[in-house]
Amino acid sequence: MQDKHKVEQSNDISSVSLKAESCRLPQLKKAIVLVGIIFLFLLITVLRRPDAITYPQFHAEDGVFWYTEAYNATNPITPFLIPKQKYFQTISRVGASASMFFDISHAPLIFNSLAIIIQILPAVFFLSKRFERIVPKTWQRFLIGTLYLVLPATHETHVNLTNAMWRLALLMFLIIVATPPKKTWQKFSDGFLLSIAGLSGPFVFFAFPVALVHAYLKSFRERISNLIIICVAFLIQAYSFLFIISDSMRLKVSLGAGLLNFFKILGLSVFINGLIGLDNKKYILDLTLWKNGKLPVIVSLIGIGLLMYVFWKAKNELRLFIIFAFLIFGASLITPQVSSTKPQWEAMASGGGVNRYYFFPVVAWVFSLTWLFFKGESKIMKSIAGLLLICLLLIGIPADFIWKPYKDYKFQEQVTKFKQLNPGESLTFKIYPNWEMPLVRK
User: If you average pLDDT over residues 131-136, what whole number do you get?
Assistant: First the structure.
């Protein structure tokens, strides 16, 4: 009997071991697939502008503000307490502080590497099971994440740390609407990323009310910790905006607001460029219908109509994203910094201006079309969305996939000259786009 009992016990142990091993195999496969997807996302991001890795150099504020102020600081905490343009930009400060542990020759690569990681984070995060409630099928979440990484008309937010805060704001929104985490490390990760995102740029001003509405629709109790973090970031940024005197480079040029200019900005920079890319906008601007103002109105009304239909039919999360995106777009139109000579809206309406202002509405526009194609009930609406997405896939993405490389200012040669200086001597670096970065040798 004892021998029989030992045999049965041995069989039970073997059975448990086999079950444990069978559980490990799917987990291993999932891990391998995830690593492969992350590598693919990294590859896509780098291929769109390889010079960010092959010959990295500072981009504007990355060098003039973030690196210079970190380099000159006697206390590494001091730069984090200095707002720029009336709000804190913590992620840029983090990159600059991290670069202090490396030689100056490697600093631009540190900046760009951090920007790349931030850029792919929303796509990677969207793959997680925490979005199964919103988009149940994994392949659809992968498709949306890939689409986000190859979007046309997004070059100014592509792989530079100064504008990485726009990508980080998208991640902040995703954390807000995701299913609340159960694991401790996920809760800590959410809190950490929300803190950094909330203290990087003005986006928390729009994220906080969205988070309140979403918590009201779902559950305050499950989201209270995130709400507290976002609220604190909101209050800090609001205090900075209202009470801290910071250096400002606001252009003293009239706004030039007008209804036709609005339709031209919205129609071209969001609805058209978001589908056919920036390189093809010249064909639109040359059309008589565009010049006489009829086409901008028609395009804008069609785009607004499609967005309103999606807003009416979609889940609350997509509705909130459309609100979030166009609140940011609206704020950008109120205080744009585009031209030092022309009225701001006039410069934007002519196809010029800062591309980052259109990042969120372009994402909302393309994602709304994607939802309409997959989830729309009306065959007519699905067909319209399908035709527009074909334009995106066949025209916009190929035209805008590879961005024009930054002009090479021979950063490494400038570093060599800098290292030959005696302590106390200075060198003015030339950095993209034709900015100057004076630095004193220590």
Answer: 94
C-alpha triplet 60, 66, 68: angle, nearest 5°:
90
Segment holding 439, helix H or strand E? strand 435-440
Q: What is the number of structural domains in the chain?
A: 1
Taking alpha carbons only, the member of 168, 50, 156, 61 closest to residue 109 is 50
User: Closest Cα to residue 67, out of 91, 105, 100, 102?
Assistant: 100
Helices of type H across 202-258: 204-217, 220-243
Q: CA 391 to CA 373: how far, in whole Å?
A: 14
Sign (positive or negative) of CA dihedral 225, 228, 229, 230: positive
The pLDDT > 90 percentage for the chain reads 80
The parent domain of residue 362 ranges over 258-421
- Kindly state the helix (H) or strand (E) to which residue 418 belongs, with its residue range: helix 411-419
Instruction: Identify the band that residue 312 occupies on the pLDDT scale cut at 50, 70 and 90.
Output: very high
Predicted TM-score of the model (pTM)? 0.92
Task: For residues 178 and 127, give the distance between their C-alpha atoms in angstroms, rounded to a whole number.
Answer: 11
Residue 328 falls inside a structural domain? yes
Instruction: Concatenate the DSSP letters of all residues of 79-148 into one string.
Output: GGG--BTTB-BHHHHHHHHHHTTS-GGGHHHHHHHHHHHHHHHHHHHHTSGGGTTTS--HHHHHHHHHHH
The C-alpha atoms of residue 78 and residue 74 are separated, in whole angstroms, by 8
Q: Does residue 382 sit within a domain?
A: yes
320 within a domain of the structure (yes/no): yes
Question: pLDDT digit string (tens) for 135-154?
Answer: 999 999 999 999 999 999 99
Q: What is the pLDDT of residues 28-41, one digit of tens each?
A: 888 899 999 999 99
Q: List the one residue out of 436, 255, 431, 257 whose CA is nearest residue 337.
A: 255
Q: Assess contact for 119 and 164: CB atoms under 8 A.
A: yes
Relative orientation angle of helices 107-126 and 164-177, to the nearest 10 degrees? 30
Report if residue 71 sits inside a domain.
Answer: no
Each residue of 240-259: pLDDT tens digit? 999 887 665 566 778 888 99
Instruction: State yes or no: pLDDT of 7 exceeds 50.
Output: no
DSSP string for residues in 278-324 = GGGHHHHHT-HHHHTTHHHHHHHHHHHHHHHHHHHHS-HHHHHHHHH
